[in-house]
Amino acid sequence: MAASAGMTMAKRVLVLNGPNLNMLGQRQPEIYGRTTLAEIDADVETAAGELGMEAVCRQSNHEGELVTWIQEARGDFDAIVINAAAYTHTSVALLDALTLFEGPVVEVHLSNIHRREAFRHRSYISGATLGMIAGFGPVGYRLALLALADRWRADGGAP
Ligand code: DQA
Question: What is the DSSP string of the chain?
Answer without folding.
Answer: ----TT-PPPEEEEEEE-TTGGGTTTS-HHHH-S--HHHHHHHHHHHHHHTTEEEEEEE-S-HHHHHHHHHHHTTT-SEEEEE-GGGGGT-HHHHHHHHH--S-EEEEESS-GGGS-GGGS--SSGGGSSEEEESSTTHHHHHHHHHHHHHHHHTT---
